[in-house]
Structures are given as structure tokens and as C-alpha cells.
Design goal:
Elements: E1 2-4, E2 7-12, E3 15-20, H1 27-30, H2 43-66, H3 77-80, E4 84-91, E5 98-105, E6 123-127, H4 137-148, H5 156-172, E7 177-181, H6 184-197, H7 202-213, H8 217-223, H9 228-235, E8 249-255, H10 262-266, E9 278-284
Parallel strand pairs: 6-7
Antiparallel strand pairs: 1-2, 2-3, 4-5, 5-6, 8-9
Helix pairs in contact: 5-6, 7-8
Amino acid sequence: MATGNGILTTTKGQEKQNMSISEGEIFDLCGPVHLTAIDWENVAHRRSVAASLVQGVYILERDKQEKWQGSQALAPPWWKHFLFELYRVLVDDVDSCIFGAIYKFAPSKSFFGGSKDKSQQRFVIAFRGTLTKGDAFTRDLQLDVHIIRNGLHRTSRFETAIQAVRHVVATYGSSDVWLTGHSLGAAMAMQAGKTMAKTEYIGYFEHREKMDTVGAGVIEKVATQHSLGGLVLNFMGKECDEPLHLIPSANLTVNLSTPTEFKEAHGIHQWWKPALLVESKKHQFT
């Protein structure tokens, strides 16, 4: 196998195939291979695993579009490295593209000292973001517009997602179920979490905190119940649902590293870098 300029060449007997593959899709080349043992109490480890499982969803759809199966499939290492198995894929009913996956933590019995009871099972439900290439782009873009209009929860993709979450929680309990996502997928995960709990991210919390400091918290509490998209829709005389970002609390992690370009700043690969410079803070408002 050789790589160069994004081209991966594989040789099998007399059969030779050229596949245009980004190195960012290959776990052994860009994944967090440095994590050979996971400390689930370590925030950086949990973040790296969650990001890798989301990347696995991206690559699942890539494998599907390119019809890469078996030894050609690029997705499995993104979860197998962390002792997860693919429990179920989530498919959009409109474009038949994979937008999410349910992973089950499935180590050997020796990992738990011979015990594998239900309390030690972990499930991660991961959602990918917008794909700019292939069959999924049009549908993903439509859903991005739904987010701006605070209407993601009204889409059939979200209905598929929340049904999957409810199934796992009802079957295995909620204590060891994680929701994670990137970009559009992060909105999907947050909406699913809000729906289950009934209960813009950096700017939202920092602004709330500043307003509390200067004594304008009550005014700010009312003002932040609206998103910019919601204000525009209301001005046009259209009804708008509750903004997605309205949540009572969050552990917010900000990447303080300076990106070289927008794609890097928004990309998922940054979240498993071993020397990542981050700032984490818990925000809670009543």
C-alpha cells in the first residue's frame, strides 16, 4: 500500500485498484493511534474517542458511496481501535444516506476481569455533519437550513435519530449512553439530548456570564431566548420554535490553538490531537 497526493493504491494478487482517498479517512495515518489504552475518566481521552466515532460515521457513508466492503472498507478501524462494535447504522429515509451510528462498547471478558454485566456496557450514538460531496449534500444542506429556522426537530431524519436514542435508553438505560456529533451532527445530538431531558455555543455562554456580571442577567435571560434566525423569522411574521442553543448547562471546551484555515478550524480531526490546547469550563444558569 502506498500513499501520495491523496491516492491510495492497493494490490491483491493480480488485481490492482486505484482509489482516490484522503489520508484523513485512514485511521492508521491520521487517527489517534497514540491512544492504546483508554482512561474513561480522562476528558481528553473521552473527547478523542467521541470524535473518532463520529468520523466513523462519515467514513461509513463514504464506504457506502464508493461500494468499499470487506478489507477495502475504511470505517471499521475508527471504532474497533477503541473496542467498540457497530450495533446499528442510522439511514435517512429521504436520500438513503448514512447519517448516524450506534456503537456498543464490546471488550473481551478479560477487560472486566471476567465480568461483563449490563452495568458495564456503554453505547455511543454518533451523528456526522454535512457532506459536501456525493449523494448526501443536497439533503444535508436542507437540514442546515432547518437548523437556522429552529426546525430540525420537525424533520424525518431527526425522527429516525430520536427513535434510535429512545430504543437504546429503553433497552439499556440512560446512564451509559452518550450522544455525540459534529457540525450538523452536533445539532442533531443536542436536539436529541434536549428532547430526552426536556430540559451557538461559545458566544452564548460567555455573553450570558458577562450580562450577569454587570447586573443585566434578567434582561439577558429574556433576550437569549431568541436566536438570530428566529428574530428574522418573527420580523417576517412567521412562527419560530425554541432555539436549539437554549440549554440550562454545559461543559464547554474551546480549542485555543490557532488554525491555519477555516476547514481546519471547523474540522473534526483537531479534537483528537495529542497536544491540543483547550480551555474547559462549566456553565450553568437558572
